[in-house]
């Protein structure tokens, strides 16, 4: 996560929080004398970051999560600057860039920029799950969707997108988050801590699509899917990074393929499938999310805002699993 301008006044330099070893969040180091990147390609865009949001992967990586994929598959090495999405101002563009110019606000274009920063990564991950993997369209009348973990950054956006597209949405969350999720438009909210949560979910008669944003339930709750309806169970926590760490690149890939086949073997004859949701870059979807936000059809749920110097505290809060919406870092 980087910043320049007010954060670092030395000409041509910027500040960045960098991961230099896998010693946990406390091993993150604030470096204040890094050179500002230069435009080297006709498609490059240099952005002065004003706000960024914290994602789960950011909080896990300092402990070594995804280390094998990072180092062996992507050929990347420490130190690395963490951070997945942002909002800011364009400072310079390459000759081939036509849609942006210096001075433009980018990613979000909706004040305040804290809200803009909370949309990109979580929004595109939700979009990838619901549209690409889940098969939902912008007109999804009659589809019954369960969002497990609706109070998080991805879950809260997914809840709103499903409602916007006409689905009937049932959301699970903790007791203290119920008022927040109610304001997002969910048709029914189930407190997952309630002793009758499972029976309540069963009473809906099955779901066309389940988006599990928690990864904490014991097994995949296939029993909640509709029978013979091409029902889909989507999880945001695929095992591939853990498998790569545990078994190496080749072994991890084969173990992941085996896991997916084994999980679907008992489901496919009943027209059900398990799918793993991953972030997928999609410029048209990003523009659509921006338009939704500008038209007040999509409201980012902000849990808390930290300053750039408080980044470690923000990561600890994300890692605790108790955030209600997105955690945002403001640069100045």
Q: So what's the CATH class of the largest domain? A: Alpha Beta
Task: Please write the string of helix (H) and strand (E) elements.
Answer: EEEEHHEEEHHEHEHEHEEHEHEHE
Percent of sequence in beta strands: 15-25%
The helical percent reads 25-40%
**How many structural domains does the protein architecture include?**
2
Radius of gyration over C-alpha positions, nearest whole angstrom: 21 Å
- What is the first-to-last residue Cα distance? 13 Å
CATH architecture of the largest domain: 3-Layer(aba) Sandwich
Which spans of ≥5 residues are poorly predicted at pLDDT below 50?
Answer: 3-10, 108-113
Content-based structural category: alpha/beta
Strand elements, count: 15
CATH superfamily of the largest domain: NAD(P)-binding Rossmann-like Domain
Q: How many individual helices? A: 10
Strands in their spatial order, largest beta sheet: 10-9-8-11-12-13
CATH topology of the largest domain: Rossmann fold
Largest sheet: 6 strands, parallel
Shape: globular
Mean pLDDT over all positions: 82
Task: Characterize the structure shown.
- This protein is of the alpha/beta class and 332 residues long.
- It folds into 2 domains: 2-118 and 300-330, Alpha-Beta Complex (Quinone Oxidoreductase, Chain A, domain 1), CATH 3.90.180.10; 122-276, Rossmann fold.
- Helices cover 31% and strands 24% of the residues.
- The chain contains 10 helices and 15 strands.
- The protein has helices at 56-60, 67-73, 113-117, 120-133, 153-164, 178-183, 197-202, 240-265, 283-294, 311-320; strands at 2-3, 13-19, 28-35, 45-54, 80-81, 85-93, 105-106, 144-148, 168-173, 188-191, 209-212, 231-235, 272-276, 302-307, 326-330.
- Strands 10-9-8-11-12-13 form a 6-stranded parallel beta sheet. It has a 5-stranded mixed beta sheet with strand order 7-6-4-15-14.
- Strand 2 (13-19) and strand 3 (28-35) form a beta hairpin.
- Helix 2 crosses helix 8 (240-265) and helix 4 crosses helix 5 (153-164).
- The longest helix has 26 residues, at 240-265.
- Residues 3-10 and 108-113 have low confidence and may be disordered.
- GO terms for molecular function: oxidoreductase activity; zinc ion binding.
- This is Reticulon-4-interacting protein 1, mitochondrial.
- It is found in: Mitochondrion.
- Pfam families: ADH_N, ADH_zinc_N_2.
């Amino acid at each position: 996560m980087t910043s320049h301008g007010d954060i670092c006044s030395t000409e041509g330099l910027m500040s960045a929080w960098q991961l230099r070893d896998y010693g946990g969040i406390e091993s993150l180091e604030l470096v204040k004398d890094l050179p500002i990147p230069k435009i080297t390609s006709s498609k490059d865009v240099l952005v002065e970051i004003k706000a960024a949001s914290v994602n789960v992967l950011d909080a896990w990586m300092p402990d070594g999560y995804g280390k094998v994929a990072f180092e062996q598959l992507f050929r990347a090495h420490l130190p690395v600057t963490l951070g997945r999405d942002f909002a800011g101002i364009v400072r310079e563009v390459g000759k081939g860039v036509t849609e942006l110019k210096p001075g433009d606000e980018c990613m979000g274009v909706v004040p305040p920029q804290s809200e803009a920063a909370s949309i990109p990564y979580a929004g595109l991950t939700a979009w990838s799950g619901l549209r690409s993997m889940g098969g939902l369209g912008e007109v999804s009348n009659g589809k019954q969707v369960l969002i497990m973990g609706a109070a998080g950054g991805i879950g809260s956006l997914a809840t709103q997108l499903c409602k916007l597209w006409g689905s009937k949405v049932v959301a699970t969350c903790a007791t203290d988050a119920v008022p927040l999720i109610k304001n997002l438009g969910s048709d029914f909210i189930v407190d997952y801590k309630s002793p009758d949560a499972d029976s309540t979910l069963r009473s809906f008669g099955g779901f066309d699509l389940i988006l599990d944003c928690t990864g904490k339930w014991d097994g995949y709750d296939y029993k909640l899917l509709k029978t013979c309806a091409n029902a889909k169970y989507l999880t945001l926590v695929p095992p591939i990074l853990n498998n790569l760490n545990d078994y190496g690149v080749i072994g991890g890939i084969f173990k992941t393929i085996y896991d997916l086949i084994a999980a679907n073997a008992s489901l496919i004859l009943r027209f059900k499938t398990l799918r793993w949701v991953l972030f997928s870059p999609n410029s048209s979807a990003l523009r659509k999310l921006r338009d939704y936000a500008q038209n007040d059809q999509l409201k980012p749920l902000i849990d808390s805002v930290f300053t750039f110097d408080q980044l470690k505290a923000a990561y600890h809060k994300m890692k605790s699993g108790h955030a209600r919406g997105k955690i945002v870092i403001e640069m100045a």
